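Project channel, design review

CF: Before we commit to the Saccoglossus kowalevskii constructs, I'd like one complete example in the thread so the newer folks can see what an input/output pair looks like. Taking Glass transcription factor.
RD: sounds good, go ahead.
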Amino acid sequence: THVYTMYNNQWKKHNKAEKRTYRTRCRSEYNKGSNLCRLCGKTYARPSTLKTHLRTHSGEKPYRCSTCDKAFSQAANLTAHVRTHSGEKPFKCMICHRSFSQSSSVTTHMRTHSGERPYKCALCKKAFADSSTLTKHLRIHSGEKPYQCKLCMLRFSQSGNLNRHMRVHSSL
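CF: and here is what came back for Glass transcription factor:
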């Protein structure tokens, strides 16, 4: 079967890859709503993606690290985590050749070269290269301190500050 679509007022015959993309798009339009999360209303093109999404609501984490027993909701996250134990860093920056264990880390790192800061604080207009730094920054405005010392109950806005504080107790 051939797939044709109108392009610049002319019918265009598609190659195999384009046909596959077109069929996927048609399927996802046809299935819209059939892979609906009844908890939050999000819809997904594939049932498998919905199944993965549902774990965000249930807290199910079926993928477990055999080294440290940490659990994950997605296999890809476990794969990336295992690299923290092995030290494997297969992703490289094409500019400075620094290596990373996750491809997303290269994407974030590239912003140090470009100066791009797409994550903006709505309260003070400060901008950040990655979402996690914005999240930490927002705690300045909210006063949230989610990290607590189990020895003296002092609270901190960042995990690194708690780790540094723990040295106070180890030197006693």
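RD: helpful, thanks. The first helix runs from residue 16 to 30.
CF: The two ends are 77 Å apart (CA to CA).
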